[in-house]
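Re: the request from the purification team.
They wanted to know what the chain is likely to look like in 3D before they choose a buffer screen. I agreed to run a prediction and write the result into the notebook, where they can find it.
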Amino acid sequence: MLNRKRKKIMGKLHTNKIPLLVLDETWCTLFPHREKNEIVLRHENRLKQLLQFQRDYSDKLQLLSNQKKELLNKILTLTSEAFGNNNIGAKSQMEQAQADVLRINAEMDELQGRIRELPEEIDSENIRLFKESMYVCYDAMMESEREVNRLTPLIDSLHRQLAEGVEQKSFHEDNYEKMRTFLVGFVGQTAVDELAQAHKEGGRGIRYWYRYFRDRAHAKGRG
């Protein structure tokens, strides 16, 4: 059912603006080799092959054109010698050059025919690659959407925990400073530091220090 729906949607696509995917930077970034399935790889390799054929045929056509030009110049050069001086050797060379020109013309006609056909083949293969890429993109999008849906509540929960933690940390920092200021005001900084150090070292109990600070406060009051 899903495949039928996909094919129906694909049939409605306007594909006349699709770039050559194998030369498109965005497509190459989205589809590194490890992310390509077997079908994508097959269409990609075929498209690259057709593009290589196009380059090779164009190069071959240019080479044949140059060879033909050289042969025609050779025929012109040999004409006066072959017919003006009735040179048998020149006539033989002319005949061979003319045969080579005919052979090159046939090769050029065949190449030009293939070159004319290639754009349509390239376009068709590019569209096939595009459609298969869309399937892969859609599947990847759905997987990413599932991951977003899974991670969103988790991240929201972590944000709430973080906000609560920041609030609690601020409260305790403020409370610590208030208590410390209160104690320092009564018994002094040194005594508070001694109490803190003793608490860290697991020293005398709180009742001892309560009596100690009470006596210090009373002595300070009498002074």
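For the purification team: Helices lie at 2-11, 25-30, 38-84, 88-187, 189-201, 206-222.
Please add any questions underneath this entry.
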